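Hi C.,

You asked whether I'd gotten around to modeling the 165-residue construct. I have! Everything is below, sequence then structure, no commentary in between.
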Amino acid sequence: MLPGHSLAEISIKVPAPFAGVTDLGFTAQYHPQDLFAPLRDVPLVIEGRALALQKLTEKLRLLRDLDEAHSWTDPVQLSDEVAVIAFRDRSLEGRTLSDGARSSLDYVLNLVRPVVFPFLRDCATVAHLRLADRIELRIQCPPRSIAQLELRCEQIVAPNGEVLL
């Protein structure tokens, strides 16, 4: 593959995004792929206390029926303290980039916007989960750290959800 024509492995850690639960977080894992290939699913590995994780997994089932340029797989609980869910790009379902501006825009948005943002937005607006007031993001391109950010909840979604885990 030509240099600059592939996407490197990146992970984005979000340690405590839900209000009232400091020991539950997730990591979005982007695997390397060709820059011009259809977007691969992006798994989110969720880790935390068993009871909070079980409640979260139940609420995440509400995300499967979105009418968006993306969707979510059903969450799968791998153990008492680990679950996975995956982001799926739906922007080009049955189309190509040359088919129209809307699908092209959605594709580019899904390509450049970290999946943590639609995940947190969907958690608050669809599953009605209350997000923490401040949300930390740690972006890594192994083995090095790229950035560490802290955002206010309203920079990601408004209004916030009301359900506490």
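If it helps when you're writing up: The two ends are 45 Å apart (CA to CA).

Thanks,
B.
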